[in-house]
Design goal:
Low-confidence stretches: 97-104
Helix content: 55-70%
Strand content: under 5%
Order of helices and strands: HHHHH
Mean pLDDT: 75
Shape: elongated
Oligomer: single chain
Number of helices: 5
Largest sheet: none
Number of strands: 0
Radius of gyration: 27 Å
Length: 104
């Protein structure tokens, strides 16, 4: 069994599975260039940080922009909305404007 087969579940558990993309290349460079352990580890971890930075910047640029001027309200659970609806329906009669409103 290859070393990468042993490493795969460990890297996935640590959320470092992106290292597997460049591991073979870095292992060959370490052997060919006589890299010490610290340099090898630095290169592997540097690859991972670059991958995450690239991934993060792609996600940031794809995120929708909001044109709301105020702070966002936290969402409420369905049970909270139901109890609010019950309270509002018992405390005041429904009007034609409230009957035609839709929720988002």
């Amino acid at each position: 069994m290859k070393l990468t087969e042993h490493l795969t579940p460990v890297l996935k558990k640590l959320r470092l599975s992106g290292i597997l993309d460049t591991l073979e290349l870095r292992l060959n460079q370490a052997v060919d260039g006589n890299l010490d352990y610290a340099e090898f580890l630095f290169r592997i971890l540097h690859d991972e940080t670059e991958r995450r930075d690239t991934s993060s910047s792609r996600c940031d640029s794809a995120a929708p922009t909001s044109n709301t001027s105020g702070p966002l309200r936290p969402s409420t659970s369905p049970s909270t909305r139901r109890s609010r609806a019950r309270r509002s329906s018992t405390s005041r009669p429904a009007t034609s404007s409230s009957a035609t409103r839709t929720s988002c």
